[in-house]
Amino acid sequence: MGVSVYLMLFSIVLLSIFVINKTIYYRKKITSMTGMMIAMTLGMSIGLTIGVIFGILFSGNLFISTVLGMLVGLVMGFLAGVPISIMAILDGMFSGLMGGMMGAMLGEMITVEYRDAIAKIMFFLFLGTSLILLCMINQEVNKKTSFFSNLFITVILFGFFFFAFELFEPVFIKPDVSIESYFGK
């Protein structure tokens, strides 16, 4: 695993904790529908992203990558829904479960040359949906625009991650899959 995988995982954990903490802090002001959206979106986006990463890391073992992806999505959906309601818990859990399963299947089926691209695409989708969630929480609570709704800040954040991924080595190291490696020549 390269440095980029650790950067992705660290960013996913950090941003998820931040969104869940904001949900816990403002749980009295967040409506049930908004809470369900937070749990569903966070569970699904984390499940998809982590599922793709696990599908690539545990390539050849669909069972392990699927179970781990589903477990991570389920737990994050649960944690995002707990401060709101039982409906939000169920919504987040099953969205995370489904996202983890789909992400693992995608990561398992993707060819070697497109692994980096799909991992980056899924991470940037997660980043975008998390920023939209933060904006939605702030609009629900404060009824005004937030720091994250500023387009300049969003562009800088996306640019930082894009530059960081290009600066480091590839996300997943490509194995030697030439014909000679199979026949020992």
Tell me the major beta sheet.
none
Structural class: mainly alpha
Weakly predicted, low-confidence segments: 177-183
Cα distance, first to last residue? Answer: 27 Å
Number of helices, where a helix is a run of at least 4 consecutive DSSP H or I residues: 7
**H and E string:** HHHHHHH
Helix content: over 70%
Structural shape: flat
As a percent range, the share of strand residues is under 5%
Number of domains: 1
The overall average pLDDT, rounded, is 85
Number of strands: 0
Radius of gyration: 18 Å
Keywords: Membrane, Transmembrane, Transmembrane helix
Describe the structure.
The protein has 7 helices and no strands. By secondary structure, the protein is mainly α. The protein has one domain (3-183). Helix 1 packs parallel to helix 5 and helix 2 runs parallel beside helix 4. It is flat. Keywords: Membrane, Transmembrane, Transmembrane helix. The chain crosses the membrane at residues 6-25, 37-57, 63-82, 89-111, 117-135, 147-165.
